[in-house]
Amino acid sequence: MAATVYSAAVMGIDAELITVETRISPGVQYFIIGLPGESVKESLFRVESAIESAGLHMPRQKVLINMGPAGLRKEGAGFDLPIAISILAASGQLDLDLDKTLFAGELSLNGYLRPVRGAIAITLKARKAGFDTLILPTENSPEAAIVSGIKVYGLATLQEVIACLRRPSDFELSLPPTGKEKVGIQPLPKLDFADISGQQKIKRAMEISAAGGHNILLIGPPGSGKTMIANRLPGIMPKLTTEEALETTKIYSVASRSDQVFFESCRPFRKPHHTASDIAMVGGGSPLMPGEISLAHNGILFLDELPEFRKAVLESLRQPLEAKTITISRASYNADLPADFLLAAAMNPCPCGYFKHPGRKCSCSPESIRRYLQKISGPLLDRIDLQVKVPPVAYTAQQPILKIDTSATIAKRVLTTLERQIRRQGVQNASLAPELIKKHCSLAPAEHELFLTVLQKHQLSARSHDRILKVARTIADMAGSENIGLLHLSEAISLRCLDQDYFQ
Ligand SMILES: [Zn+2]
Protein backbone atom coordinates (compact mmCIF):
# COMPACT_ATOMS: atom_id res chain seq x y z
CA MET A 1 0.00 0.00 0.00
CA ALA A 2 1.27 3.44 -0.86
CA ALA A 3 0.33 7.10 -0.56
CA THR A 4 1.76 10.47 -1.54
CA VAL A 5 1.35 13.62 0.53
CA TYR A 6 2.64 17.12 -0.21
CA SER A 7 4.62 19.57 1.86
CA ALA A 8 7.09 22.41 1.30
CA ALA A 9 10.57 23.27 2.49
CA VAL A 10 11.87 26.79 3.03
CA MET A 11 14.94 27.57 0.93
CA GLY A 12 16.25 31.09 1.36
CA ILE A 13 13.06 33.09 1.65
CA ASP A 14 11.06 30.95 -0.76
CA ALA A 15 9.71 27.44 -0.47
CA GLU A 16 10.14 24.31 -2.59
CA LEU A 17 7.52 21.64 -3.05
CA ILE A 18 8.32 18.37 -1.25
CA THR A 19 6.61 15.04 -1.84
CA VAL A 20 6.33 12.49 0.96
CA GLU A 21 5.66 9.00 -0.43
CA THR A 22 5.03 6.11 1.91
CA ARG A 23 5.03 2.46 0.93
CA ILE A 24 4.06 -0.22 3.39
CA SER A 25 5.09 -3.82 2.80
CA PRO A 26 5.75 -6.94 4.87
CA GLY A 27 8.65 -6.54 7.25
CA VAL A 28 9.33 -4.65 10.44
CA GLN A 29 11.62 -1.72 9.74
CA TYR A 30 11.03 1.99 9.27
CA PHE A 31 13.10 3.99 6.74
CA ILE A 32 13.25 7.56 5.49
CA ILE A 33 15.16 8.14 2.25
CA GLY A 34 15.66 11.20 0.00
CA LEU A 35 18.42 13.17 1.73
CA PRO A 36 16.80 13.65 5.14
CA GLY A 37 18.70 15.82 7.65
CA GLU A 38 19.09 14.67 11.28
CA SER A 39 15.87 16.33 12.45
CA VAL A 40 13.95 14.61 9.63
CA LYS A 41 15.41 11.20 10.52
CA GLU A 42 14.21 11.71 14.08
CA SER A 43 10.78 12.51 12.75
CA LEU A 44 9.65 8.88 12.85
CA PHE A 45 9.89 8.79 16.65
CA ARG A 46 7.69 11.86 17.01
CA VAL A 47 5.30 10.66 14.34
CA GLU A 48 4.87 7.20 15.88
CA SER A 49 4.14 8.67 19.29
CA ALA A 50 1.79 11.34 17.86
CA ILE A 51 -0.15 8.79 15.78
CA GLU A 52 -0.70 6.63 18.84
CA SER A 53 -1.72 9.63 20.95
CA ALA A 54 -4.36 10.34 18.31
CA GLY A 55 -5.83 6.89 18.91
CA LEU A 56 -4.57 5.46 15.61
CA HIS A 57 -1.79 3.00 15.08
CA MET A 58 1.63 2.90 13.53
CA PRO A 59 1.80 -0.06 11.14
CA ARG A 60 3.98 -2.89 12.47
CA GLN A 61 5.31 -3.55 8.99
CA LYS A 62 8.05 -2.24 6.75
CA VAL A 63 7.38 1.48 6.33
CA LEU A 64 9.46 3.14 3.63
CA ILE A 65 9.23 6.91 3.33
CA ASN A 66 10.72 8.59 0.29
CA MET A 67 11.05 12.35 0.21
CA GLY A 68 11.47 14.14 -3.09
CA PRO A 69 13.09 15.76 -4.90
CA ALA A 70 15.92 13.44 -3.89
CA GLY A 71 18.67 15.98 -4.61
CA LEU A 72 17.43 18.49 -2.05
CA ARG A 73 18.50 18.13 1.58
CA LYS A 74 15.47 18.26 3.90
CA GLU A 75 16.00 19.96 7.23
CA GLY A 76 13.75 20.80 10.14
CA ALA A 77 10.83 19.19 11.90
CA GLY A 78 8.15 20.72 9.68
CA PHE A 79 7.71 17.45 7.74
CA ASP A 80 6.37 15.57 10.79
CA LEU A 81 2.77 16.29 9.89
CA PRO A 82 3.00 15.32 6.19
CA ILE A 83 4.91 12.14 7.16
CA ALA A 84 2.23 11.21 9.70
CA ILE A 85 -0.58 11.83 7.20
CA SER A 86 1.27 9.87 4.56
CA ILE A 87 1.67 6.85 6.89
CA LEU A 88 -1.99 7.00 7.90
CA ALA A 89 -3.04 7.16 4.24
CA ALA A 90 -0.73 4.35 3.14
CA SER A 91 -1.92 2.11 5.97
CA GLY A 92 -5.56 2.66 5.03
CA GLN A 93 -6.47 4.59 8.17
CA LEU A 94 -7.19 7.73 6.16
CA ASP A 95 -8.97 7.01 2.91
CA LEU A 96 -9.24 10.47 1.36
CA ASP A 97 -8.12 12.41 -1.67
CA LEU A 98 -5.07 14.36 -0.49
CA ASP A 99 -3.89 15.68 -3.87
CA LYS A 100 -5.05 19.26 -3.38
CA THR A 101 -3.86 19.72 0.21
CA LEU A 102 -0.43 20.76 1.41
CA PHE A 103 0.73 20.06 4.97
CA ALA A 104 3.39 21.57 7.20
CA GLY A 105 3.94 21.26 10.94
CA GLU A 106 6.11 19.75 13.64
CA LEU A 107 4.53 17.19 15.98
CA SER A 108 5.06 16.80 19.68
CA LEU A 109 5.00 13.30 21.18
CA ASN A 110 1.42 13.78 22.34
CA GLY A 111 0.25 14.93 18.91
CA TYR A 112 0.25 18.70 19.30
CA LEU A 113 1.31 20.76 16.30
CA ARG A 114 4.23 23.12 16.69
CA PRO A 115 4.81 26.12 14.40
CA VAL A 116 7.14 26.10 11.42
CA ARG A 117 9.23 28.87 9.97
CA GLY A 118 8.40 30.59 6.68
CA ALA A 119 4.65 29.95 6.64
CA ILE A 120 4.09 32.77 4.14
CA ALA A 121 6.66 31.37 1.72
CA ILE A 122 5.06 27.91 2.10
CA THR A 123 1.59 29.33 1.45
CA LEU A 124 2.74 31.26 -1.63
CA LYS A 125 4.34 28.08 -2.98
CA ALA A 126 1.23 26.02 -2.28
CA ARG A 127 -0.95 28.51 -4.11
CA LYS A 128 1.43 28.71 -7.05
CA ALA A 129 1.61 24.92 -7.33
CA GLY A 130 -2.18 24.75 -7.57
CA PHE A 131 -3.12 23.40 -4.12
CA ASP A 132 -6.45 24.64 -2.83
CA THR A 133 -5.98 23.88 0.88
CA LEU A 134 -3.14 24.35 3.34
CA ILE A 135 -3.08 22.75 6.78
CA LEU A 136 -0.60 24.01 9.32
CA PRO A 137 -0.23 24.73 13.05
CA THR A 138 -2.57 27.29 14.66
CA GLU A 139 0.29 29.68 15.44
CA ASN A 140 1.20 29.94 11.76
CA SER A 141 -2.28 30.35 10.39
CA PRO A 142 -2.75 34.14 10.65
CA GLU A 143 0.43 34.86 8.66
CA ALA A 144 -0.47 32.17 6.11
CA ALA A 145 -3.97 33.62 5.76
CA ILE A 146 -2.45 36.90 4.57
CA VAL A 147 -1.98 35.13 1.24
CA SER A 148 -5.30 35.16 -0.60
CA GLY A 149 -6.57 32.52 -3.01
CA ILE A 150 -6.01 29.41 -0.90
CA LYS A 151 -7.94 27.91 2.03
CA VAL A 152 -5.88 27.92 5.21
CA TYR A 153 -6.72 25.80 8.27
CA GLY A 154 -4.73 26.43 11.43
CA LEU A 155 -5.07 23.39 13.69
CA ALA A 156 -3.79 22.39 17.11
CA THR A 157 -3.36 18.60 17.02
CA LEU A 158 -2.96 15.65 14.66
CA GLN A 159 -6.43 14.55 15.75
CA GLU A 160 -7.88 17.86 14.59
CA VAL A 161 -6.09 17.54 11.27
CA ILE A 162 -7.68 14.14 10.69
CA ALA A 163 -11.10 15.45 11.72
CA CYS A 164 -10.69 18.45 9.43
CA LEU A 165 -9.71 16.27 6.47
CA ARG A 166 -12.81 14.16 7.04
CA ARG A 167 -15.26 17.02 7.59
CA PRO A 168 -13.78 20.41 6.63
CA SER A 169 -17.16 22.06 7.18
CA ASP A 170 -16.73 21.58 10.95
CA PHE A 171 -13.71 23.87 10.90
CA GLU A 172 -13.35 27.57 10.30
CA LEU A 173 -10.92 28.98 7.80
CA SER A 174 -8.09 31.06 9.25
CA LEU A 175 -8.21 34.80 8.84
CA PRO A 176 -5.35 37.25 8.45
CA PRO A 177 -4.39 39.29 11.51
CA THR A 178 -6.71 42.19 12.14
CA GLY A 179 -7.10 45.20 14.38
CA LYS A 180 -4.53 45.45 17.09
CA GLU A 181 -2.28 42.75 15.69
CA LYS A 182 -1.91 44.73 12.50
CA VAL A 183 0.98 46.78 13.79
CA GLY A 184 4.37 47.29 12.28
CA ILE A 185 7.65 46.08 13.59
CA GLN A 186 8.85 47.50 16.90
CA PRO A 187 5.74 49.66 17.11
CA LEU A 188 7.60 52.90 17.26
CA PRO A 189 6.82 55.17 20.12
CA LYS A 190 5.19 58.29 18.81
CA LEU A 191 8.36 59.87 17.52
CA ASP A 192 7.65 63.08 15.65
CA PHE A 193 9.88 65.61 13.99
CA ALA A 194 7.79 68.29 15.68
CA ASP A 195 9.49 67.31 18.97
CA ILE A 196 12.78 68.63 17.68
CA SER A 197 13.21 72.37 17.61
CA GLY A 198 16.08 73.78 15.60
CA GLN A 199 18.24 71.49 13.42
CA GLN A 200 16.23 72.63 10.39
CA LYS A 201 18.99 71.75 7.96
CA ILE A 202 19.25 68.22 9.29
CA LYS A 203 15.51 67.67 9.21
CA ARG A 204 15.53 68.91 5.66
CA ALA A 205 18.34 66.45 4.81
CA MET A 206 16.23 63.62 6.27
CA GLU A 207 13.34 64.68 4.08
CA ILE A 208 15.61 64.66 1.00
CA SER A 209 16.86 61.21 2.01
CA ALA A 210 13.35 59.79 2.41
CA ALA A 211 12.03 61.43 -0.74
CA GLY A 212 14.81 60.40 -3.12
CA GLY A 213 15.90 57.17 -1.42
CA HIS A 214 19.35 58.61 -0.70
CA ASN A 215 21.50 56.90 1.91
CA ILE A 216 22.45 59.36 4.63
CA LEU A 217 25.26 59.77 7.13
CA LEU A 218 24.92 62.21 10.02
CA ILE A 219 28.19 63.37 11.46
CA GLY A 220 28.39 65.49 14.57
CA PRO A 221 29.44 65.67 18.22
CA PRO A 222 27.83 63.67 21.01
CA GLY A 223 24.52 65.11 22.14
CA SER A 224 23.74 66.86 18.87
CA GLY A 225 20.63 64.74 18.41
CA LYS A 226 21.80 62.50 15.55
CA THR A 227 20.12 59.39 16.93
CA MET A 228 16.99 61.28 17.93
CA ILE A 229 16.66 62.57 14.37
CA ALA A 230 17.40 59.23 12.70
CA ASN A 231 14.82 57.47 14.89
CA ARG A 232 12.19 59.70 13.31
CA LEU A 233 12.98 58.70 9.73
CA PRO A 234 10.36 55.88 9.50
CA GLY A 235 7.65 58.38 10.39
CA ILE A 236 8.17 60.44 7.24
CA MET A 237 8.52 57.58 4.76
CA PRO A 238 5.54 56.48 2.67
CA LYS A 239 3.64 53.49 4.04
CA LEU A 240 4.44 50.10 2.57
CA THR A 241 2.45 49.09 -0.50
CA THR A 242 0.57 45.79 -0.23
CA GLU A 243 3.16 44.04 -2.35
CA GLU A 244 6.06 45.42 -0.29
CA ALA A 245 4.28 44.48 2.93
CA LEU A 246 3.85 40.87 1.78
CA GLU A 247 7.50 40.69 0.70
CA THR A 248 8.76 42.08 4.00
CA THR A 249 6.42 40.00 6.15
CA LYS A 250 7.57 36.89 4.26
CA ILE A 251 11.16 37.60 5.30
CA TYR A 252 10.14 37.97 8.97
CA SER A 253 8.15 34.76 8.71
CA VAL A 254 11.27 32.90 7.51
CA ALA A 255 13.21 34.45 10.40
CA SER A 256 10.59 33.00 12.81
CA ARG A 257 9.33 36.49 13.58
CA SER A 258 5.75 35.85 12.55
CA ASP A 259 4.62 38.33 15.20
CA GLN A 260 5.80 41.02 12.81
CA VAL A 261 3.18 41.78 10.23
CA PHE A 262 3.63 44.82 8.09
CA PHE A 263 0.25 45.55 6.58
CA GLU A 264 -0.88 49.16 6.76
CA SER A 265 2.19 49.87 8.77
CA CYS A 266 5.29 51.97 8.56
CA ARG A 267 8.47 50.57 7.11
CA PRO A 268 10.77 48.27 9.06
CA PHE A 269 13.42 50.11 11.02
CA ARG A 270 16.42 47.99 12.03
CA LYS A 271 19.02 49.26 14.40
CA PRO A 272 21.68 46.57 14.93
CA HIS A 273 24.28 47.15 17.62
CA HIS A 274 27.82 47.84 16.47
CA THR A 275 28.95 44.51 17.90
CA ALA A 276 26.80 42.68 15.30
CA SER A 277 28.56 39.82 13.49
CA ASP A 278 28.60 39.61 9.72
CA ILE A 279 26.14 36.70 9.80
CA ALA A 280 23.78 38.78 11.95
CA MET A 281 24.15 41.62 9.49
CA VAL A 282 23.90 39.92 6.10
CA GLY A 283 22.38 36.54 6.99
CA GLY A 284 23.61 32.96 6.96
CA GLY A 285 23.85 30.03 9.33
CA SER A 286 22.09 26.70 9.10
CA PRO A 287 19.23 26.81 8.46
CA LEU A 288 19.74 30.05 6.57
CA MET A 289 18.41 33.00 8.52
CA PRO A 290 17.93 36.45 6.99
CA GLY A 291 20.24 39.11 8.46
CA GLU A 292 19.56 42.70 9.46
CA ILE A 293 19.85 43.96 5.89
CA SER A 294 17.04 41.63 4.77
CA LEU A 295 14.94 42.41 7.83
CA ALA A 296 15.36 46.05 6.76
CA HIS A 297 14.14 45.22 3.22
CA ASN A 298 11.76 47.97 2.04
CA GLY A 299 12.70 49.93 5.11
CA ILE A 300 15.62 51.50 6.94
CA LEU A 301 18.87 50.13 8.30
CA PHE A 302 20.20 52.53 10.93
CA LEU A 303 23.83 52.11 11.98
CA ASP A 304 24.61 54.30 14.96
CA GLU A 305 28.31 54.87 15.78
CA LEU A 306 29.22 53.73 12.26
CA PRO A 307 33.03 53.53 12.73
CA GLU A 308 32.55 51.22 15.73
CA PHE A 309 31.21 48.44 13.50
CA ARG A 310 33.67 45.76 12.50
CA LYS A 311 35.41 46.55 9.27
CA ALA A 312 34.36 43.22 7.71
CA VAL A 313 30.74 43.92 8.61
CA LEU A 314 30.84 47.34 6.96
CA GLU A 315 32.51 45.89 3.90
CA SER A 316 29.81 43.25 3.63
CA LEU A 317 27.28 46.04 3.05
CA ARG A 318 28.83 47.07 -0.25
CA GLN A 319 27.30 44.40 -2.45
CA PRO A 320 23.75 44.74 -1.10
CA LEU A 321 23.91 48.55 -1.24
CA GLU A 322 24.64 48.25 -4.95
CA ALA A 323 22.64 45.15 -5.93
CA LYS A 324 19.80 45.48 -3.38
CA THR A 325 20.05 41.74 -2.77
CA ILE A 326 22.55 39.57 -0.93
CA THR A 327 23.90 36.31 -2.25
CA ILE A 328 24.80 33.82 0.45
CA SER A 329 26.76 30.75 -0.53
CA ARG A 330 27.42 27.87 1.81
CA ALA A 331 28.24 24.22 1.23
CA SER A 332 24.62 23.19 1.70
CA TYR A 333 22.86 26.07 -0.07
CA ASN A 334 23.12 29.07 -2.31
CA ALA A 335 20.51 31.75 -1.83
CA ASP A 336 19.66 35.28 -2.87
CA LEU A 337 17.88 37.27 -0.21
CA PRO A 338 16.28 40.65 -0.88
CA ALA A 339 18.03 43.58 0.80
CA ASP A 340 16.68 46.81 -0.61
CA PHE A 341 17.03 49.21 2.29
CA LEU A 342 17.76 52.85 2.95
CA LEU A 343 20.99 53.18 4.90
CA ALA A 344 21.02 55.80 7.62
CA ALA A 345 24.14 56.09 9.74
CA ALA A 346 25.49 58.35 12.43
CA MET A 347 28.99 59.00 13.72
CA ASN A 348 31.16 61.34 15.71
CA PRO A 349 33.76 63.27 13.70
CA CYS A 350 36.60 61.75 15.77
CA PRO A 351 37.12 59.31 18.66
CA CYS A 352 36.52 62.01 21.34
CA GLY A 353 33.69 63.54 19.32
CA TYR A 354 34.74 67.20 19.28
CA PHE A 355 36.85 67.57 16.13
CA LYS A 356 36.05 70.97 14.57
CA HIS A 357 33.63 71.72 17.42
CA PRO A 358 33.01 75.44 17.81
CA GLY A 359 33.24 75.44 21.61
CA ARG A 360 35.22 72.42 22.78
CA LYS A 361 38.68 71.19 22.18
CA CYS A 362 39.30 67.88 20.45
CA SER A 363 41.79 65.73 22.31
CA CYS A 364 42.55 63.37 19.44
CA SER A 365 45.79 63.19 17.52
CA PRO A 366 45.60 63.80 13.76
CA GLU A 367 46.68 60.18 13.32
CA SER A 368 43.84 58.80 15.44
CA ILE A 369 41.30 60.98 13.62
CA ARG A 370 42.59 59.75 10.29
CA ARG A 371 42.38 56.12 11.43
CA TYR A 372 38.86 56.68 12.78
CA LEU A 373 37.55 58.24 9.57
CA GLN A 374 39.33 55.71 7.40
CA LYS A 375 37.30 52.90 8.90
CA ILE A 376 34.41 53.99 6.73
CA SER A 377 36.16 55.67 3.86
CA GLY A 378 36.22 54.49 0.29
CA PRO A 379 33.65 52.31 -1.42
CA LEU A 380 31.14 52.39 1.43
CA LEU A 381 31.12 56.18 1.61
CA ASP A 382 30.74 56.29 -2.13
CA ARG A 383 27.36 54.73 -1.69
CA ILE A 384 26.16 57.34 0.78
CA ASP A 385 24.71 60.28 -1.16
CA LEU A 386 24.10 62.55 1.81
CA GLN A 387 26.85 63.28 4.32
CA VAL A 388 25.54 65.88 6.66
CA LYS A 389 27.30 67.78 9.40
CA VAL A 390 25.12 68.05 12.49
CA PRO A 391 26.02 71.13 14.54
CA PRO A 392 25.96 70.97 18.34
CA VAL A 393 22.48 71.91 19.53
CA ALA A 394 23.57 75.03 21.44
CA TYR A 395 25.10 76.42 18.28
CA THR A 396 22.19 75.98 15.91
CA ALA A 397 20.37 79.15 15.12
CA GLN A 398 17.32 79.11 17.37
CA GLN A 399 15.22 81.47 15.35
CA PRO A 400 11.70 81.62 16.67
CA ILE A 401 10.00 79.18 14.36
CA LEU A 402 6.33 79.88 14.13
CA LYS A 403 5.38 76.45 12.98
CA ILE A 404 7.40 73.25 13.16
CA ASP A 405 6.39 70.67 10.58
CA THR A 406 5.03 67.46 12.03
CA SER A 407 6.17 64.12 10.65
CA ALA A 408 2.76 63.71 9.01
CA THR A 409 3.19 66.98 7.09
CA ILE A 410 6.67 65.99 5.97
CA ALA A 411 5.46 62.50 5.01
CA LYS A 412 2.86 64.05 2.71
CA ARG A 413 5.53 66.07 0.92
CA VAL A 414 7.80 63.03 0.68
CA LEU A 415 5.01 61.03 -0.96
CA THR A 416 4.33 63.78 -3.52
CA THR A 417 8.02 63.94 -4.40
CA LEU A 418 8.25 60.17 -4.61
CA GLU A 419 5.28 59.98 -6.98
CA ARG A 420 6.83 62.62 -9.20
CA GLN A 421 9.99 60.50 -9.60
CA ILE A 422 8.11 57.28 -10.27
CA ARG A 423 5.97 59.00 -12.92
CA ARG A 424 9.02 60.39 -14.68
CA GLN A 425 11.47 57.50 -14.54
CA GLY A 426 9.98 54.55 -12.67
CA VAL A 427 12.56 54.59 -9.86
CA GLN A 428 13.68 56.89 -7.06
CA ASN A 429 16.42 59.36 -7.93
CA ALA A 430 19.00 57.52 -5.82
CA SER A 431 18.55 54.44 -8.03
CA LEU A 432 19.04 56.25 -11.35
CA ALA A 433 21.46 54.41 -13.63
CA PRO A 434 24.27 56.48 -15.21
CA GLU A 435 22.54 56.82 -18.58
CA LEU A 436 19.37 58.01 -16.86
CA ILE A 437 21.32 60.54 -14.81
CA LYS A 438 22.40 62.10 -18.09
CA LYS A 439 18.82 62.17 -19.26
CA HIS A 440 17.05 63.41 -16.14
CA CYS A 441 19.69 65.40 -14.25
CA SER A 442 21.11 67.57 -17.00
CA LEU A 443 22.27 71.07 -16.15
CA ALA A 444 22.02 74.30 -18.13
CA PRO A 445 25.46 75.55 -19.35
CA ALA A 446 25.86 78.16 -16.59
CA GLU A 447 24.98 75.68 -13.82
CA HIS A 448 27.25 73.10 -15.35
CA GLU A 449 30.18 75.51 -15.43
CA LEU A 450 29.72 76.38 -11.77
CA PHE A 451 29.37 72.72 -10.85
CA LEU A 452 32.68 71.85 -12.46
CA THR A 453 34.41 74.70 -10.64
CA VAL A 454 33.09 73.52 -7.29
CA LEU A 455 34.06 69.92 -7.97
CA GLN A 456 37.56 71.02 -8.80
CA LYS A 457 37.87 73.32 -5.82
CA HIS A 458 36.88 70.58 -3.40
CA GLN A 459 38.64 67.86 -5.36
CA LEU A 460 35.46 65.86 -5.53
CA SER A 461 35.57 62.55 -7.37
CA ALA A 462 33.66 61.57 -10.48
CA ARG A 463 31.44 59.44 -8.27
CA SER A 464 30.60 62.46 -6.13
CA HIS A 465 29.64 64.21 -9.37
CA ASP A 466 26.79 61.76 -10.04
CA ARG A 467 25.75 61.55 -6.39
CA ILE A 468 25.42 65.32 -6.14
CA LEU A 469 23.39 65.48 -9.35
CA LYS A 470 20.96 62.86 -8.08
CA VAL A 471 20.49 64.71 -4.79
CA ALA A 472 20.02 67.99 -6.69
CA ARG A 473 17.37 66.21 -8.79
CA THR A 474 15.51 65.26 -5.61
CA ILE A 475 15.74 68.80 -4.26
CA ALA A 476 14.37 70.14 -7.55
CA ASP A 477 11.58 67.55 -7.39
CA MET A 478 10.71 68.65 -3.87
CA ALA A 479 10.35 72.18 -5.23
CA GLY A 480 8.25 70.90 -8.13
CA SER A 481 10.82 72.14 -10.60
CA GLU A 482 11.38 70.58 -14.04
CA ASN A 483 15.00 71.70 -14.16
CA ILE A 484 17.82 71.59 -11.67
CA GLY A 485 18.58 75.19 -10.75
CA LEU A 486 21.52 76.82 -9.00
CA LEU A 487 19.84 76.72 -5.61
CA HIS A 488 19.10 73.01 -5.89
CA LEU A 489 22.64 72.33 -6.97
CA SER A 490 24.32 74.34 -4.24
CA GLU A 491 22.15 72.77 -1.56
CA ALA A 492 23.13 69.33 -2.87
CA ILE A 493 26.82 70.30 -2.75
CA SER A 494 26.44 71.48 0.84
CA LEU A 495 25.19 68.01 1.76
CA ARG A 496 28.57 66.36 1.03
CA CYS A 497 30.38 67.59 4.14
CA LEU A 498 32.68 64.61 4.52
CA ASP A 499 34.38 65.19 1.20
CA GLN A 500 34.76 68.85 1.95
CA ASP A 501 35.33 69.19 5.67
CA TYR A 502 36.88 66.03 6.96
CA PHE A 503 38.70 64.04 4.33
CA GLN A 504 41.23 66.65 3.41
ZN1 LIG B 1 38.54 64.28 19.01
Sequence-ordered SSE layout with sheet pairings:
Elements: E1 2-11, E2 14-25, E3 30-33, H1 38-41, H2 43-53, E4 62-68, H3 80-90, E5 101-103, E6 106-107, E7 113-114, H4 119-128, E8 133-137, H5 141-145, E9 151-155, H6 158-166, H7 200-212, E10 216-219, H8 226-230, H9 242-254, E11 269-270, H10 278-282, E12 283-284, E13 289-290, H11 292-295, E14 300-303, H12 311-315, H13 318-323, E15 325-329, E16 334-338, E17 342-347, H14 366-374, H15 379-382, E18 386-389, H16 407-425, H17 434-440, H18 445-457, H19 462-478, H20 486-494, H21 497-502
Parallel strand pairs: 3-4, 5-8, 8-9, 10-17, 10-18, 11-14, 14-17
Antiparallel strand pairs: 1-2, 2-4, 6-7, 12-13, 15-16
Features:
21 helices, 504 residues, alpha/beta, single chain, Ribosomal Protein S5, domain 2, binds zinc ion, Rossmann fold
